[in-house]
Every structure is written in structure tokens, then in C-alpha cells.
Fold:
Amino acid sequence: NVINSGGVKLFPEEVEKKLAAILISPFFVAGLPDERFGEKLCLFVEGTAADDESLRQMKTMIEQALDKYEKPRDIFFIPQFIYTESGKIRREETMRNR
Structure:
């Protein structure tokens, strides 16, 4: 599971491990197509978008927790993720419902 963004290889599991320390809601990172970089790293968070101040604080914490190339280009808030029967997030299906 690798995201190639502008020639930089990003490993979602490593990014998610760092974000787990600061995000409370269920989340995951994934690559989406991008004309300039081939793929771009995006953050998907379960729930509704926070108010402007909370969103600003969340972005600041993300900036501090991640390395330069690990920072998500976009953040998507999805009201409800799609889960498997065993409780794992169905990433592809969830991303299609953004």
C-alpha cells in the first residue's frame, strides 16, 4: 500500500500511526488522482466538518505531527464510513461516497 506523489513514496500506515496520536474520530489516509503529482495524499475523517476554529487547530496539529511530504493535500469529512462486518473501514467504498 504505497502512494506515489510527485515521485515521493508515502506509506499510509506510517502516516496514520502519527495521526492516531492527535485525531479522535475514525480516519484514514489514501491517495487520490492528481494531474500535477500523479496522486495526492488525502485525509478522510468520519463525522461532520468542525467549525472554522476547530478545523484550524486540527490542521495546525497535523502540520506539527507530520513530515513535509506526509501532510494531506485535502481533508474530507464523511458523515458515516462504510464498515465490514468485522468492523474494518471499507476505504474504497467510503471514498466513493465523499
